[in-house]
Design brief:
- The complex is a heterodimer of chains A (534) and B (449).
- With 534 residues, chain A is mainly alpha-helical.
- Chain A is built from 21 helices and two strands.
- Chain B has 449 residues and is of the alpha/beta class.
- In chain B, the strands form seven sheets. In chain B, strands 3-2-1-7-19 form a five-stranded parallel β-sheet. A five-stranded parallel β-sheet of chain B has the order 9-16-10-11-12, with helices on one face. A five-stranded antiparallel β-sheet of chain B has the order 21-22-25-24-23, sandwiched between helices.
- The N and C termini of chain B lie far apart (47 Å).
- The chains are: A mainly alpha (534), B alpha/beta (449).
- The interface between A and B is large, with 71 and 72 residues.
Chain lengths: 534, 449
Amino acid sequence: MSTYDRSMALTGQPPKELSRNQKIATLIGLSGLAIILLAAFNVDFPNKALWLSISLAAITTGTIWFSWDMYSKKEPGIKNDGVWFKSISSKGFWGWIAGISLTSFYIILYFYPEYLGLVQKGDNTGVIGLFDPLSRALSGNPASQWFVYGTLYTVAILAFGIKFIWKYRHNRYERIRTMSVMFFQTAFAFIIPELMARLNGSSVLNGGSLPYYDLKNMWPLNYYNFEGYRIKGFLSSGDIGFGLLIFGVLSIFVISPILTYKFGKRWYCSWVCGCGGLAETAGDSFRQLSDKTVKAWKIERWVVHSVVVFVTLMTTAVIYSYLGNDTSKYWLTKSTFLIGVGVLLTSVFALVMIFKREQFQKDAKYGAVGYLVIILALIGFHFFSGEGQVFLFKSETLRKSYSFLIGSIFSGVIGTGFYPIFGNRVWCRFGCPMAAILGFQQRLFSKFRITTNGGQCISCGNCSTYCEMGIDVRAYAQKGENIVRSSCVGCGICSAVCPRGVLKLENGPLQGRIDSNQVLLGNDVDLMTLVNKK
Amino acid sequence: MENIVIIGNGIAGVSAARHIRKLSDKRIIIISGETDYFFSRTALMYVYMGHMKFDHIQPYENWFWEKNRIELVRGYVTKVNPNEKQLLIDGSRAVNYDKLIIATGSKPNKFGWPGQDLHGAQGLYSKQDLDLLEVNAPNKEVCKRAVIVGGGLIGIELAEMLRSRDIPVTFLVRENSFWNGVLPSGESQLINEHILEHHIDLRLGTNLKEIVADENGKVKSVIIAETGEELPCNMVGLTAGVAPNIDFLKDSGIEVGRGVKVNRFLETNIKDIYAIGDCAEQHEAIGNRRPIEAVWYTGRMMGETVAQTICGNQIEYKPGHWFNSAKFLDIEYQTYGWVFSERGMKEYEEHFHWRHSEEKVCITISFNKENNQFLGINTFGIRMRHEVFDRWLTQEKDVDYVMEHLIDANFDPEFYKNYETEIVSKYNADFGKSIKTKKKSLKRIFAIG
């Protein structure tokens, strides 16, 4: 679409232009970033605690002031004016600059932390040195690149969370949900693990140590939870550690299925999860960039489920690698474990195929059968080939490549770095194995749905445009069909931006959860019954 | 194979095409002079406001049409010749049809104001109008003030659009309160206040006398009929309603009134020619409806219906209970059943009105004072469930029942404040009743068990 802008003003026109307050706020926020950047170039700040506080305060103040000026003067309501005119939010020049900067940051963070000032033996320098005082205050240890990242991550969720709450202040669901992700990030992902690290070696843990453990981060999102060093850490701390290990197993097999049945996967993805938390707050300006085409949906289904298979294989291989063969030493041996995995996967597959097969499309059925055969064949290796080789690759190779490809490149570099290009939920949609497993439960065994309000849809497209998961919500709403999709994280924005109040997230009875109508409510009753006969 | 030609690619024409394709293998051709692909007309405003790009308001991806063998022709139909069963596109290309569906929609009304055709004066209906608006009012430098004439749904949308770019807007409304030909006074008053909150210069009870041109034939100002005041402006929005867009049917032999005259089967006076959507006019109005209904939903419903008839299952157009919705700036409006304004009220009709003391939230419930039957509801700022009200209207529930179970109909997002208790206590006070609100029941809502 062409916009005929004949103005010579460099800053553009409403609704794109920045007000004076917004310019000052931007300056303050960027000055906070500048301190961190200077530290990265090894400018040695005298009083680190003071300069770190100034920097984080400036970033927070800048963001909050900017949002205050943007939303406080307007009437409460949906205000997406100019979203597609601003270059930052419509893949324009600033969008690309932001994407490239974020991506570079992630590459340095994951692969070259020494450039940030990480020193193995001796005092940290650079940015990591700047964060040392805060880290010592929390856990007693010097900072690492992950501590720097965690701090900035938390600041981003808090500052942009406030922006989000302001923007959607008329919507109580959004307010409460955002407070929830802000809380879980600050407490569970940031502060509690640091305090747990402080306890290591203390009498509470019988002198043992706990791995750095974000309690809400469950396998398979937390793909390293069952690696040897972590198991050792858990088991070195007596009952507490053992309890946490049990909690880790229960959370994926018991707790999450129950909650997903009752509320849909939103209880995790948009209320608790840290990745979701960043996407919903700092990433909110980019939600409209997700690809809604059917093609993207097809790619998404294959990619995300392949990651699930990959993480299952990898974890099985890793656990296998440190188990023994002798039952007298420990009850769980290599063979028992592999048989257990095989039985579990086969029974899930069988139950779904028996009870829910009509809800699968053809390619999903083929994919499921194919993957199951592959996994079982690979497990069979152990029994036919003798010692050590469970899968074609060594477990260490699998672990390393998963951690590099999925753990770093996909979830970090692409998942967050590409926010301004592919939208804010690229990782959650195409990569997250946890989301895929919860989504599978949500699609087949859950009370959650987005209800379409009879025949009220006007096909305007706001819901689809602002769906961060790339769901073509309108396609369902205009058929009078409820939206029941694996990928839906229940952020509630489709319902919020709908100008006619057609969509509602709710947990209701399973009966008639998915109904599509040829002829919608409001037409001739006889015609509706004639055509909508199921 | 029968050849079905549809003139117009709006919601009515496209609904008909989709349903004909579901039911049959007939050849389907859609002709439109406006755009290549179907788009949601109600969403045009969001393109100007920057909420969406134009491709976002197209409900189907571009491959959809070929995949479903619906042929799209871009062109303007200038003549229909029923004797030859042929029509002309742009006065030259001829297309033959076996059955013809006219779904050409509306055009903005012009009431013969002096200067109504000047550069800078425009309606807002088509994609072309939207493009023209980008020329007439791209920003507040080019358009220092806009004047909107006509207080209806399109008028208030146009005001909201212009305000999103900070353009000063004067809104001339003929009625002494916004849209009070349709809305009861309490609701109309609520919207008046809300318009002012958005810094729109609302002039009630005001008519346009003329639009004045500058030396280049562009809009310079408007003159108000009542006061003779001259308002300088660069753009005039003509939004005083719409009329069927059927000029090309002159001398075709198809019977027209204001719209194309159709019977209950949506058939015109000529065999094999049908008319649906905004441009169709019923010989006698259906129930309380108007003979011409320029509404998204009715367009869709007529499309669904005529497809059955064309595919050999002749079905009368019998719309169910009336419903509609709109959004006035930040306030969502929904209506189920009939709630008339004071001007159009039936003699048996009585209203119950509740308005929140601070927030812009209100409802009006209409019922029959003779037998207490519930007739309809208007809601502002509360979402209500279509299925539930449709069921209550069908079952002819009385107003006490509706009050008791009002919570069942609530469709607001989770955690929203509920106003049912307040509403019912005012109802009890107004009518000396002692209704107690029931708890929400999923069983009742979803009609299970």
